[in-house]
Fold:
Amino acid sequence: QVQLVESGGGLVQAGGSLRLSCAASGPTFRRYGMGWFRQAPGKEREFVASITYSGGGTSYADSVKGRFTISRDNAKNMSYLQMNSLKPEDTAVYYCAASTIFSVVVQTTSRYDYWGQGTQVTVSS
Structure:
């Protein structure tokens, strides 16, 4: 019912920055919480950040606190992940996700209903 498309991934040197974007399409009458996840080769998909529909609540994985910022623009049906001070260990495929749990932040993959196709982020040493 909801389609999500990520963009903004690429190759960046350690210490650099990238901004990922997630465009949502389809029915817009419902409220959704938004999240970002990542998966490195040979590893499980892990939570990165989430934000409530209103933007009033956010949550971050300990590994990215102070470096990444999640935001959204509901008028544009967009979600963003600003990534600063990137490290080689941030290298992964990053996924945008939407959850019908909109009033509180959620970091469990099973609670997200819609997923994007992923965008590759590679951080060189």
